[in-house]
Amino acid sequence: MVPVSHAVESWTGDPWKGDSWEGDSWDGSNFKWEGDSWSEDGWTGDATEGTEAANGEGWNGQKWESQPWYMRGWNGGNGFTGDSWQENGWNSDGSHTGDNWSYPGWAGAASKGDGWNESGFQGSNPWNQNGYQGGDPWSEGGYAGDPFSNQGFAGAGYSGGAWQEAGSSGAGAFSGPDGYTPPERFYDSNEFKETKFVTDKLITGTANFVHEGLNDGFSSEKTGLHLTDLFVSGAKLQTGDHWAYDMYDMTSTAKDGYDKVSKLESLRKAEVVREITTRSAFRANQISNTSKVQQYASIIKDSAGQVSRNMDISNVSGTWSKMGALSKFNFVTSGVNAGISAYKTGASFSDAVNTFNSDATGTEKTVAAAKVGTNFGETLMSAGGVAAAVPGGQAVGAGLAAAGAGVFVVSKGVELVAKNKEKIAATAKKATDTVKKAASKGWKKVKGWFS
């Protein structure tokens, strides 16, 4: 191999010599194209064989041909020949020959030319046939001229105004075949029940419990009753109404009523002692010979007079200032409860009237009447709380509360029995059967001793 430095040698020779190029630069601006522009005749041809816009020769090839209605497939082969109405299936040897309208289903056995004359129609007017009889279906039985005039509309069903009939009562509350359903009222709401629980049980009840405990001592009986009342009332608020809660209400209210009667008895005895010690022997003999009922009536009357004087417009300010904080609170809460209970009494009385005027069952009517008594009993008890909070009103307050408790217990008992009479009857029957079985076994056993 030859080294690169030896393989490439520098160029040697004479340099190029000559004259430099001289001349005008090329300018083609003066050159123009000359000649005749191209022209040719437009395309011409028949419109049926080409478009006029083409202006030229039309289509000169083979024309497309096909068999029309009279060719194969219609008149030349299978299918129809000539007139389709004359072919097999119509006027040939098929099911129809001649005029297809003359065949069964049209003018044949089924319809005989006029469909309205066939069985099921038998005339030119279907409204004249059996089931309508007169050309006007509204004139037939079940309509009698105007369906809105019959029972269920403006007749016996509603008498023109549906809201005025049993089941509406005009005010929107509903009553139907099952009786009257009272409308929803404010004291039925959960919010009202929760507020009443907090106010009556947690605050007022606990405050009175503590006040009595500080004065008379906290006995285990009173403590247990108060805690039980809080527990049951709270459970009722969460789970809703139940016959067990009704039983508890009856029992606790009866206990309250008994306590109020005991309070009234203590006031009677104190009044007798006062009369005996401050009056003459003749007056003492009169008091001792007076019946307890008359004595109760006397002290209640005196107490009511004192409450009336203390709550007179001229004395109410002084009376209010003499009342303690707890008495004032009891006065207000009892007054509110009395107003609500009075409203419930009026509402339940209205419901009872509507129930008795409806198609309600005997049980529903009994329950409706019992609720009036229950609410009225609550009203009397709340009014007793108001009176007892006023100085000098302890006797009349105890009397009202005791009377209200009695009305409440009796009414609630009637309501409870009416609602649960089937359960009570089943329980009684079960108990009776148990006794019968036990007696039968006992008799057989005794009989066996002597056999």
Task: Set down the secondary structure blueprint.
Blueprint: H1 4-7, E1 174-176, E2 179-181, H2 190-216, H3 220-239, H4 243-278, H5 281-289, H6 292-310, H7 316-322, H8 325-356, H9 362-389, H10 394-419, H11 421-449
Antiparallel strand pairs: 1-2
Notes on the protein architecture:
This protein has 451 residues and is an all-alpha fold. Among the domains are: 186-240; 256-426, no CATH class. Helix content is 53%, strand content 1%. The protein is built from eleven helices and two strands; from the N terminus they run αββαααααααααα. The chain has helices at 4-7, 190-216, 220-239, 243-278, 281-289, 292-310, 316-322, 325-356, 362-389, 394-419, 421-449, and strands at residues 174-176, 179-181. The protein has a two-stranded antiparallel ribbon. A hairpin with a 2-residue loop joins strand 1 and strand 2. Helix 2 packs antiparallel against helix 3 (220-239) and helix 6 (292-310) crosses helix 10.
